[in-house]
User: Which sequence fits this backbone?
């Protein structure tokens, strides 16, 4: 919900989402790559990977838990995503893995 916004407007949107949840007792499903937004507004984060890069299939869930615990997840891809570090994944992509 905050793609392309400056940090201040992003925080305004995040606060609106939180206020709507508190005032109206609603749940929201957000799709984001912005870990700051996820950390501020989510009570649970689900991170999925496609099972195949060349066709349809059920996604593989590699994390399902609170945003504050993502960096310590046993799957290194989760912490790597949270930190925004390519690490070995970039090398794997270059090699066709």
Assistant:
């Amino acid at each position: 919900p905050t793609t392309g916004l400056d940090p201040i407007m992003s925080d305004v949107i995040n606060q609106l989402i939180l206020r709507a949840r508190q005032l109206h007792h609603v749940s929201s499903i957000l799709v984001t790559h912005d870990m700051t937004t996820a950390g501020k507004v989510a009570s649970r984060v689900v991170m999925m990977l496609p099972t195949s890069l060349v066709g349809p299939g059920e996604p593989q869930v590699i994390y399902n838990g609170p945003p504050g615990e993502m960096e310590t997840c046993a799957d290194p891809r989760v912490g790597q995503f949270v930190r925004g570090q390519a690490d070995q994944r970039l090398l794997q992509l270059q090699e066709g893995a």
Q: What stands out?
A: The CA atoms of residues 42 and 67 lie 7 Å apart. Residues 44-97 form one domain.
